[in-house]
Amino acid sequence: MTTSPQRPAWTAALCWLTVLIEGYDLVALGAAIPTLLRTHELGFTPAGATAVATVSLVGVGIGAACIGPLTDRFGRRGMLIWSVLLFSLFTLAIPLSPNVAVFGVLRFAAGLGLGACMPVALTMMSESLPERRRASANTVTMTGYHVGAVLTSLLALAVAGDWRVLFYGGGIVGLLVVPVMWLRLPESAAFLAARQAPERDRVRPRDLLGPRFRRTILTVWAGSFMGLLLVYGLNTWLPQLMATAGYPLATSISLLLVLNVGAIAGLLVAGAVADRFGIKRVAVIWFAAAALLLAALSLRVDSEPLLNVLVLLTGVFVFSAQVLIFGYVAHYFPAAARGTALGLTSAVGRLGSILGPFVTGMLVTAGVAYPWGFWFFAAVAVLGMAAMATVAGRTAPASDVRVA
Question: Where are the transmembrane segments (predicted)?
Answer without folding.
Answer: 46-67, 79-96, 102-122, 143-160, 166-185, 216-234, 246-270, 282-301, 307-329, 341-366, 372-392
